[in-house]
Amino acid sequence: MRVLTHNMLSSNIKGVTNGFPLGIEVEKVIEKQVDFNPDFLKNMFIKIEWKALVDASRSLGYDELPEEAPESSVIDSDDFLRKFHHALLELHLEEGALVCPQTGRKFPVNKGIPNMLLHEDEV
Amino acid sequence: MSSRPELKAPPEIFYDDVEARKYTSSSRIIEIQAKLSERALELLALPDDGVPRLLLDIGCGSGLSGETLSENGHQWIGLDISPSMLDIALEREAEGDLLLKDMGQGLGLRSGVIDGAISISAVQWLCNADKSSHEPRLRLKAFFGSLYRCLARGARAVFQVYPESLAQRELILSSAMRAGFAGGVVVDYPHSSKSRKEYLVLTCGPPSINTELPKAKLEDEESCSDDESSGDEENQTVCISDRHRPRKKQKTTKKGKGREWVLKKKEQMRRKGNAVPLDTKYTARKRKARF
């Protein structure tokens, strides 16, 4: 699972009011090469929750991203886009778990696929 | 297809390792899936500026439909309830991210982040109650509600569905409308029983010019059928292809009727008093090829 997906995903357990962002427990991280596309990244930038992205990429062992969301003038720089690209699309959480921030419920991640199935009493 | 998989077992059980492999190794299914997703993508009507979008593939299965999305350069997130199907998707190296998720439990995605959603032959599964806790109406509501939230304003969702009955289509459509979607059903090839395909085209947001339903595909030259013509003057050319329609095959087993059957018939004839040759080792034996 990429950080991109982590940034979109929230916990939807019944009664949880703020299920975003999910915590990450890391067992194994892998990297995969993905084609670099600046247009897509610029498009994505407005939709990304910056803080969650930085935290997620840090817990996956990549800390090149700035703490604060960059100014719009920086976004066009190639250097920044490369880092953004790497954090967003190339880091994969292969084994581990996602943790609901409110209830602490764990969603196990196996072979890169998070198991987001809820139990009957959580729906 | 006379048997609908929806009627056999819940999706996570029906698509087990065996069925998932069967599904994905059939070149016919792969071709159909590719065609359906191609058309669904077309109906999504994404702006034609070459920028990749973030799409959702609901009921992505083994990633056949996602492949079409990747080929068109888009990023996608796929979700499915069958772990076996997702395993195959991993094997096929699907480029999108996969989630094991039940769409009837809601999607659990952040608001307004997704640029479009497609779903090939999946939504009709929601109309079944497979567990005691399942209530189709509530599951449809949870699904469409969460989908509406996560789609960006003006984004579209296209579902190819095989509704079982009129009531089922009505149920799906009304749940979508209640969630706030505008749109309707596009039926491709409405006069053909085989290639007829239904797409639910939904738009996020109030009805406007952009939410106008796209045109359905009608029978084109290649696949014109000879049934009571649709009244179109140009379409009334005679179809040659119909002459070569395969005849219904005669029902014969390869082996023929066999020695037992011949002996039985001879016995019947004897009882009637007819003159019947004796039973020997040559009775009902096959002739050699050179004869």
Automatic annotation (TrEMBL), chain A:
CDD domains: Trm112-like. One of its GO terms (molecular function) is protein heterodimerization activity. One of its GO terms (biological process) is rRNA (guanine-N7)-methylation. It comes from the Eukaryota. It holds the Pfam family Trm112p. InterPro entries: Trm112, Trm112-like. Belongs to the TRM112 family. Interacts with TRM9. This is Uncharacterized protein. It comes from Acer saccharum.
Automatic annotation (TrEMBL), chain B:
It is found in: Cytoplasm; Nucleus. Keywords: Cytoplasm, Methyltransferase, Nucleus, S-adenosyl-L-methionine, Transferase. Residues 202-289 form the 18S rRNA (guanine(1575)-N(7))-methyltransferase Bud23 C-terminal domain. The keyword S-adenosyl-L-methionine applies. Residues 56-158 form the Methyltransferase type domain. One of its GO terms (cellular component) is nucleolus. It comes from the Eukaryota. Belongs to the class I-like SAM-binding methyltransferase superfamily. BUD23/WBSCR22 family. CDD domains: AdoMet_MTases. InterPro entries: Bud23-like (IPR039769), Bud23_C (IPR022238), Methyltransf_11 (IPR013216), SAM-dependent_MTases_sf (IPR029063). Residues 244-257 have a biased composition (Basic residues). This is 18S rRNA (Guanine-N(7))-methyltransferase. Residues 219-235 have a biased composition (Acidic residues). Residues 215-291 are annotated as: Disordered. It comes from Acer saccharum. The keyword Nucleus applies. GO terms for biological process: rRNA (guanine-N7)-methylation.
